[in-house]
Amino acid sequence: MLYSPYLITHKMMPENQEFPMLSLSSRITPENLFYIRNHFQYPIVDMRSWGLSIKGCVNRQVYFPYHDLLKMPQATLPVTLECAGNKRAFFHPKTRGEQWELGAISHALWRGVRLVDLLYVAGIQMNAREVTFEGMDRGVRTDMPGEVSYIRSLPLDQAINPVTIIALYMNGKPLPFRHGYPARLIVPGWYGMASVKWLHQITVTEEQFQGPFQVVDYVYDRTPIAQSTPEPVTTISLNSTIARPTDEEVLAKGVNWVVGTAISGRDPVVLVEISTDNGNSWLPTSWLEPQETYSWRRWCWKWHVTESGTYDIKVRAADAAGNIQGELADWNVKGYGYNAIQHIRVHVD
Ligand SMILES: Nc1nc2c(c(=O)[nH]1)N[C@H]1C(S)=C(S)[C@@H](COP(=O)(O)O)O[C@H]1N2
Ligand SMILES: [Mo]
């Protein structure tokens, strides 16, 4: 059977589409199925004038034309990007924002220049504390006047971490325009908002960046549940997802494979378990591929069903630090970081 899956559309202007998890068939997500998350309309990029500049708390302002970046030493890293709003649709009560289900997550091989190599050319001054990254896309937000650009910052230690790269290639080809051509930041292990697309300006600063995509969005705000100051959203939480079967699917008796993914941007995932009795008993799944630090990892489980009925299937992952996914999501106002145990119901005839 010829099967040609499509992205699942949430919005077209700006474009927000998710990867159809049920089509999961390789570790690397096919480019045409890689999720897309944009806050604004696409920018206009004129390659005759495009270059990457670094200014701020640096010894010398530098400017890198595209062809200079291409000639610099390149690093290649497999990195999974996951939107902080992935699985938002499963929060109770619901939270505002794109109602992402399972697929605001995808995996690719990124190749580009290490950010630290560029910062080294500029020379970081003693007072530097953060590095901000400005994308070329801009537009209006409903909560403030005027136009804003998509800008995010990183603490200096993460900026100089050699895994942080300015990607010029995705899966061996020049970065597709929708994923940030000509250059995008890739911050391995962090939720996707950190990986700024259509990058053109880097600024090393002494102050903490206060832009809306830093302090209004992408913070865990737990009021009124807890009285606490909102914490910034950073690394990917421990999570696991069933790609197949799907919720309410009808299956035949016999062998049915359950397949999915697991990820954490913190400690390596060491175990994924499945339950077919609503969480009363759990069995380990098998890995389909080796552990890789910043990558999701696919697992499978051979389910031999002999009795017809309705089954409540659950999946949970555990990491090397002893954390295990829980039944309840850590509810927050903006609906970030959903990582409760996934529950699907299937019917066996
Ligand atoms: N310039 C720019 N960079 C951006 C965004 C954006 O809207 N503009 N969205 C961010 C968010 S929230 C995510 S999840 C990822 C999505 O990357 P992708 O569209 O390549 O999957 O890009 C990030 N980088
Ligand atoms: Mo995102």
Percent of residues in helical segments? under 10%
- Which whole number gives the mean pLDDT? 97
Tally of helical runs: 4
**Principal-axis shape:** globular
Structural class: mainly beta
The largest β sheet comes out as: 5 strands, mixed
- For the record, give the distance between the C-alpha atoms at the N and C termini, rounded to a whole number: 23 Å
Q: Strand tally, please?
A: 24
Strand order of the largest sheet: 5-4-13-8-9
Bound molecules: the ligand Nc1nc2c(c(=O)[nH]1)N[C@H]1C(S)=C(S)[C@@H](COP(=O)(O)O)O[C@H]1N2, molybdenum atom
Into which percentage range does the β-strand content fall?
35-45%
Order of helices and strands: EEEEEHEEHEEHEEEEHEEEEEEEEEEE
Contiguous low-pLDDT stretches (5 residues minimum) are none
Which short descriptors sum up this protein?
mainly beta; five-stranded mixed beta sheet; binds molybdenum atom; 40% strand; single chain; 349 residues; five-stranded antiparallel beta sheet; binds the ligand Nc1nc2c(c(=O)[nH]1)N[C@H]1C(S)=C(S)[C@@H](COP(=O)(O)O)O[C@H]1N2
